[in-house]
Design goal:
heterodimer, A: 113 residues, mainly beta, 7-stranded mixed beta sheet, 4-stranded antiparallel beta sheet, 11 strands, 51% strand, B: 111 residues, 6-stranded mixed beta sheet
Chain lengths: 113, 111
């Protein structure tokens, strides 16, 4: 069964450093997403990506964040200058075109020290 | 602002009982409703989705939707300790591909 894969599973970084989180969505899905979940809190939408461009973004997705699909398969989330409050689990997801069901990757846990 | 509200719990039920999880939403234009299960430290996984008013059953799980009351629920029959997890309600508005998640309800099934 196809699945969304994410790397790394866990990254520890120093405040102010750049981080890139990578995702390979399910190939025949059309919309891709990044969600964030701070420990103990709700799953929060960051950004959606369709047809190789951002289709919608939340107020959380400010100038320090960017997304790319550099090679037609990988889907990356870059955080330019990490802050302590960026520590969270970051989930990549893609949506089934017919049902609207989100398929989540296993997540990348980011710890900013 | 689209809101999805869930009681954070924890909801504690004995093994074999029925667990009832509730969710309300603010956007009357919402059309698709999803229940995800999330184990601690893991990603959400879909249990059920429902589009139409009424009940939808899948094994031990039943989703119930009442659009007039803007209310969706999940019933888990014959609850097992392995059902202990956080259950997330997600709502998709018409024309949108961005589900909004509730905070989740923590369920504890004790032997």
């Amino acid at each position: 069964e196809p699945e969304v894969t994410q790397t790394p599973s866990h990254q520890v970084t120093q405040m102010g450093q750049e981080v890139i989180l990578r995702c390979v969505p399910i190939s025949n899905h059309l919309y891709f997403y990044w969600y964030r979940q701070i420990l103990g809190q709700k799953v929060e939408f960051l950004v959606s990506f369709y047809n190789n461009e951002i289709s919608e973004k939340s107020e959380i997705f400010d100038d320090q964040f960017s997304v790319e699909r550099p090679d037609g398969s990988n889907f990356t989330l870059k955080i330019r200058s990490t802050k302590l409050e960026d520590s969270a689990m970051y989930f990549c997801a893609s949506v089934h075109r017919d049902t609207g069901e989100l398929f989540f990757g296993e997540g990348s846990r980011l710890t900013v020290l | 602002q689209k809101e999805v509200e869930q009681n954070s719990g924890p909801l504690s039920v004995p093994e074999g009982a029925i667990a009832s999880l509730n969710c309300t939403y603010s956007d009357r234009g919402s059309q698709s409703f999803f229940w995800y299960r999330q184990y601690s430290g893991k990603s959400p996984e879909l249990i059920m989705f429902i589009y139409s008013n009424g009940d939808k059953e899948d094994g031990r799980f039943t989703a119930q939707l009442n659009k007039a009351s803007q209310y969706v629920s999940l019933l888990i029959r014959d609850s097992q300790p392995s059902d202990s997890a956080t259950y997330l309600c997600a709502v998709l508005s018409g024309g949108s591909y961005i589900p909004t998640f509730g905070r989740g309800t923590s369920l504890i099934v004790h032997p």
